[in-house]
Amino acid sequence: MRRVATVLALGAMAAGVAACGAEVETSDTTSGGAETTASEPTGSGDGTLTISNWDAYTPKGLIPGFEKETGVKVKLAKHATNEDIMGKLEASGGSGYDIVFVSGQFAEALHKRGWAAEIDHSKIPNLKNLYPEANELPYDPGNQYSVPYTWGTTGICYRSDLVPEKPTSWNDLLDPAPENEGKVTMLATDRWLMLPALKALGYSANTTDEGELEEARDLLLKTKDQLLAYDDTTFYSKLVSGEANLVEAWDGWCNYGIAEDDRIEFVVPEEGSDLWADTMVVLESSPNKDEAFEFINYVLRPESGQGIVDLLTYNTPNQAAMEQLDPKLKKQFPNLGIPPETLLEQENLRDLGDAQPTWTRIVTEITS
Fold first, then answer.
1. How would DSSP label each residue in 10-69?
2. What's the rounded Cα separation, in Å, for the pair 36 and 88?
3. Mean pLDDT throughout 301-322?
Protein backbone atom coordinates (compact mmCIF):
# COMPACT_ATOMS: atom_id res chain seq x y z
CA MET A 1 0.00 0.00 0.00
CA ARG A 2 2.80 2.42 0.82
CA ARG A 3 4.44 1.97 -2.57
CA VAL A 4 1.16 2.26 -4.47
CA ALA A 5 0.11 5.34 -2.54
CA THR A 6 3.43 7.00 -3.30
CA VAL A 7 3.07 6.35 -7.01
CA LEU A 8 -0.47 7.71 -6.95
CA ALA A 9 0.71 10.79 -5.10
CA LEU A 10 3.31 11.57 -7.71
CA GLY A 11 0.83 11.01 -10.50
CA ALA A 12 -1.75 13.26 -8.86
CA MET A 13 0.64 16.05 -7.91
CA ALA A 14 -0.27 18.39 -10.75
CA ALA A 15 -3.97 17.92 -10.08
CA GLY A 16 -3.73 18.89 -6.45
CA VAL A 17 -1.83 22.08 -7.12
CA ALA A 18 -4.08 22.99 -10.02
CA ALA A 19 -7.16 22.48 -7.90
CA CYS A 20 -5.71 24.81 -5.30
CA GLY A 21 -4.72 27.42 -7.87
CA ALA A 22 -0.98 27.05 -8.51
CA GLU A 23 0.52 27.23 -11.98
CA VAL A 24 1.34 23.66 -12.97
CA GLU A 25 0.56 21.84 -16.21
CA THR A 26 1.30 18.22 -17.05
CA SER A 27 -0.10 15.59 -19.36
CA ASP A 28 -2.23 12.57 -18.49
CA THR A 29 -3.58 9.86 -20.73
CA THR A 30 -5.31 7.73 -18.11
CA SER A 31 -8.68 9.41 -17.76
CA GLY A 32 -10.46 7.92 -20.77
CA GLY A 33 -12.65 9.71 -23.26
CA ALA A 34 -11.55 11.74 -26.23
CA GLU A 35 -9.14 14.46 -25.15
CA THR A 36 -8.85 18.10 -26.11
CA THR A 37 -7.19 21.03 -24.42
CA ALA A 38 -8.80 23.82 -22.42
CA SER A 39 -8.05 26.22 -25.28
CA GLU A 40 -10.26 24.17 -27.61
CA PRO A 41 -13.84 24.16 -26.33
CA THR A 42 -15.88 21.73 -28.40
CA GLY A 43 -19.31 21.72 -26.79
CA SER A 44 -22.03 20.65 -29.23
CA GLY A 45 -25.65 19.69 -29.24
CA ASP A 46 -25.09 16.13 -30.45
CA GLY A 47 -25.33 14.56 -26.99
CA THR A 48 -21.55 14.41 -26.59
CA LEU A 49 -20.46 15.85 -23.26
CA THR A 50 -17.50 18.20 -23.22
CA ILE A 51 -15.97 18.34 -19.77
CA SER A 52 -12.98 20.34 -18.54
CA ASN A 53 -11.22 19.03 -15.44
CA TRP A 54 -7.81 19.51 -13.90
CA ASP A 55 -5.14 17.30 -15.36
CA ALA A 56 -4.85 13.95 -13.56
CA TYR A 57 -7.97 14.67 -11.50
CA THR A 58 -10.23 12.06 -13.14
CA PRO A 59 -10.01 8.37 -12.13
CA LYS A 60 -8.91 6.12 -14.96
CA GLY A 61 -12.10 4.13 -15.39
CA LEU A 62 -14.64 6.84 -14.65
CA ILE A 63 -15.32 8.15 -18.14
CA PRO A 64 -15.06 4.79 -19.98
CA GLY A 65 -17.44 3.26 -17.43
CA PHE A 66 -19.93 6.09 -17.88
CA GLU A 67 -19.72 5.89 -21.67
CA LYS A 68 -20.22 2.11 -21.70
CA GLU A 69 -23.22 2.20 -19.39
CA THR A 70 -25.03 5.21 -20.83
CA GLY A 71 -23.93 5.37 -24.45
CA VAL A 72 -23.09 9.06 -23.93
CA LYS A 73 -19.76 10.07 -25.45
CA VAL A 74 -17.42 12.31 -23.48
CA LYS A 75 -14.70 14.68 -24.65
CA LEU A 76 -12.33 15.48 -21.80
CA ALA A 77 -10.52 18.81 -21.87
CA LYS A 78 -7.91 19.65 -19.28
CA HIS A 79 -7.05 22.88 -17.55
CA ALA A 80 -4.04 23.61 -15.41
CA THR A 81 -5.64 26.07 -12.97
CA ASN A 82 -8.92 27.68 -12.03
CA GLU A 83 -7.68 30.83 -13.71
CA ASP A 84 -6.97 28.88 -16.89
CA ILE A 85 -10.52 27.62 -17.38
CA MET A 86 -12.06 30.90 -16.18
CA GLY A 87 -10.03 32.73 -18.81
CA LYS A 88 -11.31 30.40 -21.53
CA LEU A 89 -14.88 30.90 -20.38
CA GLU A 90 -14.40 34.66 -20.31
CA ALA A 91 -13.17 34.56 -23.89
CA SER A 92 -16.12 32.42 -25.03
CA GLY A 93 -18.82 34.20 -23.05
CA GLY A 94 -19.36 31.24 -20.77
CA SER A 95 -19.81 28.64 -23.49
CA GLY A 96 -17.95 25.76 -25.12
CA TYR A 97 -18.24 23.18 -22.34
CA ASP A 98 -21.03 21.25 -20.68
CA ILE A 99 -19.36 20.69 -17.29
CA VAL A 100 -16.39 22.48 -15.76
CA PHE A 101 -14.56 21.51 -12.60
CA VAL A 102 -13.64 24.56 -10.53
CA SER A 103 -13.03 25.36 -6.88
CA GLY A 104 -15.96 26.60 -4.84
CA GLN A 105 -15.11 30.29 -4.95
CA PHE A 106 -14.90 30.09 -8.75
CA ALA A 107 -18.23 28.27 -8.92
CA GLU A 108 -19.61 31.22 -6.99
CA ALA A 109 -18.08 33.59 -9.55
CA LEU A 110 -19.64 31.61 -12.41
CA HIS A 111 -23.01 31.88 -10.71
CA LYS A 112 -22.63 35.63 -10.32
CA ARG A 113 -21.90 35.89 -14.05
CA GLY A 114 -25.03 33.89 -14.89
CA TRP A 115 -22.95 31.14 -16.48
CA ALA A 116 -23.77 28.33 -14.03
CA ALA A 117 -26.96 26.38 -14.67
CA GLU A 118 -29.31 25.51 -11.85
CA ILE A 119 -28.74 21.94 -10.70
CA ASP A 120 -31.84 19.79 -11.28
CA HIS A 121 -31.77 17.66 -8.13
CA SER A 122 -34.52 15.41 -9.46
CA LYS A 123 -32.13 14.18 -12.14
CA ILE A 124 -29.26 13.48 -9.72
CA PRO A 125 -30.68 10.99 -7.19
CA ASN A 126 -27.18 10.13 -5.97
CA LEU A 127 -27.00 13.53 -4.29
CA LYS A 128 -28.35 11.48 -1.39
CA ASN A 129 -24.85 9.98 -1.06
CA LEU A 130 -23.37 13.32 0.03
CA TYR A 131 -22.77 14.13 3.67
CA PRO A 132 -25.49 16.46 4.99
CA GLU A 133 -22.71 18.99 5.64
CA ALA A 134 -21.98 19.05 1.90
CA ASN A 135 -25.30 20.84 1.47
CA GLU A 136 -24.23 23.62 3.84
CA LEU A 137 -21.26 25.07 1.97
CA PRO A 138 -21.59 28.87 2.19
CA TYR A 139 -20.56 29.56 -1.40
CA ASP A 140 -23.59 27.53 -2.57
CA PRO A 141 -26.02 26.45 0.18
CA GLY A 142 -28.09 23.52 -1.00
CA ASN A 143 -25.86 22.91 -4.03
CA GLN A 144 -28.09 24.99 -6.26
CA TYR A 145 -25.53 25.58 -9.02
CA SER A 146 -22.61 23.27 -8.21
CA VAL A 147 -21.93 19.80 -6.80
CA PRO A 148 -18.85 19.17 -4.64
CA TYR A 149 -16.29 16.64 -5.89
CA THR A 150 -13.54 16.82 -3.26
CA TRP A 151 -12.99 18.93 -0.16
CA GLY A 152 -10.44 19.52 2.54
CA THR A 153 -8.55 22.02 4.63
CA THR A 154 -5.08 23.51 5.09
CA GLY A 155 -2.76 23.19 8.05
CA ILE A 156 0.73 22.36 9.22
CA CYS A 157 2.39 19.19 7.97
CA TYR A 158 5.46 18.31 10.02
CA ARG A 159 8.08 15.73 10.87
CA SER A 160 7.16 14.55 14.34
CA ASP A 161 10.71 13.27 14.95
CA LEU A 162 12.29 16.62 14.08
CA VAL A 163 9.86 18.97 15.85
CA PRO A 164 10.18 18.61 19.65
CA GLU A 165 6.69 19.98 20.36
CA LYS A 166 3.62 19.40 18.22
CA PRO A 167 2.75 22.64 16.41
CA THR A 168 -0.58 24.11 17.42
CA SER A 169 -0.62 27.61 15.94
CA TRP A 170 -0.01 29.39 12.65
CA ASN A 171 2.63 31.29 14.60
CA ASP A 172 4.72 28.12 14.57
CA LEU A 173 5.21 28.95 10.89
CA LEU A 174 5.17 32.72 11.11
CA ASP A 175 7.58 32.94 14.05
CA PRO A 176 9.34 29.58 14.09
CA ALA A 177 11.34 28.27 17.02
CA PRO A 178 15.13 28.58 16.60
CA GLU A 179 15.51 24.93 15.60
CA ASN A 180 12.96 25.43 12.80
CA GLU A 181 14.31 28.67 11.32
CA GLY A 182 15.17 28.13 7.68
CA LYS A 183 13.31 24.82 7.73
CA VAL A 184 9.80 26.09 7.08
CA THR A 185 7.93 26.44 3.79
CA MET A 186 4.69 28.27 3.02
CA LEU A 187 2.33 28.03 0.08
CA ALA A 188 2.77 30.69 -2.58
CA THR A 189 -0.72 30.79 -4.11
CA ASP A 190 -2.51 33.94 -2.99
CA ARG A 191 -5.35 32.55 -0.87
CA TRP A 192 -3.07 30.18 1.00
CA LEU A 193 -0.07 32.48 1.24
CA MET A 194 -2.26 34.97 3.13
CA LEU A 195 -4.18 32.38 5.16
CA PRO A 196 -1.76 31.84 8.08
CA ALA A 197 -1.24 35.55 8.72
CA LEU A 198 -4.93 36.43 8.41
CA LYS A 199 -5.95 33.67 10.80
CA ALA A 200 -3.14 34.46 13.26
CA LEU A 201 -4.36 38.08 13.32
CA GLY A 202 -7.94 36.99 13.85
CA TYR A 203 -9.15 38.08 10.42
CA SER A 204 -11.28 36.34 7.83
CA ALA A 205 -9.62 34.33 5.07
CA ASN A 206 -12.03 36.17 2.76
CA THR A 207 -11.36 39.68 4.01
CA THR A 208 -11.58 42.51 1.53
CA ASP A 209 -10.46 45.14 4.04
CA GLU A 210 -7.29 46.73 2.67
CA GLY A 211 -5.99 47.61 6.12
CA GLU A 212 -6.30 44.00 7.31
CA LEU A 213 -4.61 42.75 4.15
CA GLU A 214 -1.73 45.17 4.60
CA GLU A 215 -1.32 44.11 8.23
CA ALA A 216 -1.11 40.49 7.09
CA ARG A 217 1.40 41.54 4.40
CA ASP A 218 3.63 43.18 7.00
CA LEU A 219 3.56 40.04 9.15
CA LEU A 220 4.43 37.84 6.19
CA LEU A 221 7.30 40.12 5.18
CA LYS A 222 8.76 39.73 8.68
CA THR A 223 8.47 35.97 8.30
CA LYS A 224 10.03 35.83 4.86
CA ASP A 225 13.67 35.81 5.94
CA GLN A 226 13.06 32.81 8.20
CA LEU A 227 11.58 30.64 5.47
CA LEU A 228 13.23 27.92 3.46
CA ALA A 229 10.95 28.66 0.52
CA TYR A 230 7.53 29.46 -0.83
CA ASP A 231 6.62 26.08 -2.26
CA ASP A 232 3.38 24.76 -3.78
CA THR A 233 4.70 21.55 -5.29
CA THR A 234 7.64 19.91 -3.49
CA PHE A 235 7.07 20.85 0.15
CA TYR A 236 6.18 17.32 1.21
CA SER A 237 9.34 16.00 -0.45
CA LYS A 238 11.34 18.47 1.64
CA LEU A 239 9.79 16.92 4.75
CA VAL A 240 10.69 13.43 3.56
CA SER A 241 14.31 14.43 2.93
CA GLY A 242 14.58 16.33 6.21
CA GLU A 243 15.30 19.59 4.45
CA ALA A 244 12.17 21.03 6.07
CA ASN A 245 10.78 20.41 9.55
CA LEU A 246 7.30 21.83 9.06
CA VAL A 247 5.38 23.22 6.13
CA GLU A 248 2.05 24.79 5.29
CA ALA A 249 0.13 22.13 3.39
CA TRP A 250 -3.22 21.03 2.07
CA ASP A 251 -4.38 17.97 3.97
CA GLY A 252 -4.41 15.76 0.87
CA TRP A 253 -0.89 16.79 -0.06
CA CYS A 254 0.38 16.05 3.42
CA ASN A 255 -0.81 12.50 2.68
CA TYR A 256 1.75 12.33 -0.13
CA GLY A 257 4.50 12.84 2.43
CA ILE A 258 2.92 10.36 4.86
CA ALA A 259 2.96 7.79 2.05
CA GLU A 260 6.77 7.98 2.11
CA ASP A 261 7.43 8.58 5.82
CA ASP A 262 4.94 7.72 8.54
CA ARG A 263 6.66 10.14 10.93
CA ILE A 264 4.96 12.96 9.04
CA GLU A 265 1.79 14.26 10.68
CA PHE A 266 -0.82 16.96 10.04
CA VAL A 267 -2.55 19.44 12.33
CA VAL A 268 -5.11 22.21 11.84
CA PRO A 269 -3.90 25.25 13.86
CA GLU A 270 -5.96 26.41 16.81
CA GLU A 271 -6.79 29.74 15.12
CA GLY A 272 -8.70 27.82 12.46
CA SER A 273 -8.18 27.39 8.75
CA ASP A 274 -10.03 27.20 5.45
CA LEU A 275 -12.48 24.78 3.93
CA TRP A 276 -11.77 24.40 0.24
CA ALA A 277 -13.98 22.45 -2.15
CA ASP A 278 -13.61 21.46 -5.78
CA THR A 279 -16.88 21.28 -7.64
CA MET A 280 -18.70 20.27 -10.81
CA VAL A 281 -20.62 23.06 -12.54
CA VAL A 282 -23.00 22.60 -15.47
CA LEU A 283 -22.87 25.64 -17.72
CA GLU A 284 -26.08 27.48 -18.55
CA SER A 285 -25.01 27.43 -22.21
CA SER A 286 -24.79 23.61 -22.29
CA PRO A 287 -27.05 21.99 -24.91
CA ASN A 288 -26.64 18.67 -23.07
CA LYS A 289 -27.86 19.38 -19.56
CA ASP A 290 -29.65 16.04 -19.10
CA GLU A 291 -26.46 14.14 -20.01
CA ALA A 292 -24.46 16.44 -17.74
CA PHE A 293 -26.72 15.67 -14.79
CA GLU A 294 -26.45 11.98 -15.64
CA PHE A 295 -22.65 12.24 -15.53
CA ILE A 296 -22.68 13.98 -12.15
CA ASN A 297 -25.02 11.29 -10.86
CA TYR A 298 -22.49 8.67 -12.01
CA VAL A 299 -19.65 10.51 -10.25
CA LEU A 300 -21.66 10.43 -7.02
CA ARG A 301 -21.87 6.64 -6.94
CA PRO A 302 -20.00 5.09 -4.00
CA GLU A 303 -17.59 3.21 -6.26
CA SER A 304 -16.83 6.37 -8.23
CA GLY A 305 -16.09 8.23 -5.01
CA GLN A 306 -13.76 5.45 -3.91
CA GLY A 307 -11.90 5.81 -7.20
CA ILE A 308 -11.46 9.52 -6.55
CA VAL A 309 -9.96 8.85 -3.12
CA ASP A 310 -7.73 6.08 -4.47
CA LEU A 311 -6.37 8.42 -7.15
CA LEU A 312 -5.93 11.61 -5.14
CA THR A 313 -5.82 10.56 -1.46
CA TYR A 314 -8.19 13.49 -0.89
CA ASN A 315 -11.38 13.52 1.14
CA THR A 316 -14.58 13.47 -0.87
CA PRO A 317 -17.95 14.72 0.38
CA ASN A 318 -19.43 11.44 -0.88
CA GLN A 319 -20.40 9.84 2.43
CA ALA A 320 -21.33 6.52 0.86
CA ALA A 321 -17.85 6.30 -0.69
CA MET A 322 -15.98 7.34 2.45
CA GLU A 323 -17.82 4.77 4.57
CA GLN A 324 -16.71 2.00 2.20
CA LEU A 325 -13.01 2.89 2.20
CA ASP A 326 -10.59 0.21 3.29
CA PRO A 327 -9.92 0.80 7.03
CA LYS A 328 -6.23 0.20 6.31
CA LEU A 329 -6.22 3.24 4.02
CA LYS A 330 -7.72 5.44 6.73
CA LYS A 331 -5.19 4.08 9.22
CA GLN A 332 -2.29 4.91 6.93
CA PHE A 333 -3.68 8.35 6.10
CA PRO A 334 -5.38 9.78 9.22
CA ASN A 335 -6.41 12.88 7.26
CA LEU A 336 -8.97 10.71 5.44
CA GLY A 337 -10.67 10.43 8.82
CA ILE A 338 -11.25 14.17 9.25
CA PRO A 339 -15.00 14.30 9.91
CA PRO A 340 -17.17 16.66 7.85
CA GLU A 341 -18.26 18.56 10.95
CA THR A 342 -14.61 19.44 11.58
CA LEU A 343 -14.26 20.67 8.00
CA LEU A 344 -17.39 22.79 8.40
CA GLU A 345 -15.80 24.48 11.43
CA GLN A 346 -13.26 26.01 9.05
CA GLU A 347 -13.91 29.06 6.89
CA ASN A 348 -15.21 28.34 3.41
CA LEU A 349 -13.24 30.18 0.73
CA ARG A 350 -15.42 32.67 -1.16
CA ASP A 351 -15.20 34.71 -4.33
CA LEU A 352 -13.26 37.93 -3.64
CA GLY A 353 -15.09 39.90 -6.31
CA ASP A 354 -13.81 43.44 -6.80
CA ALA A 355 -11.17 42.94 -4.09
CA GLN A 356 -9.16 40.48 -6.18
CA PRO A 357 -6.81 43.16 -7.63
CA THR A 358 -5.98 44.33 -4.10
CA TRP A 359 -5.17 40.77 -3.08
CA THR A 360 -3.01 40.33 -6.18
CA ARG A 361 -1.09 43.53 -5.49
CA ILE A 362 -0.39 42.64 -1.87
CA VAL A 363 0.66 39.07 -2.67
CA THR A 364 3.05 40.42 -5.32
CA GLU A 365 4.56 42.78 -2.74
CA ILE A 366 5.21 39.79 -0.46
CA THR A 367 6.71 37.39 -2.98
CA SER A 368 8.65 39.77 -5.22
1. HHHHHHHHHHHT---------S-SEE--TT-----SSS-EEEEEETT-S-TTHHHHHHHH
2. 13
3. 97
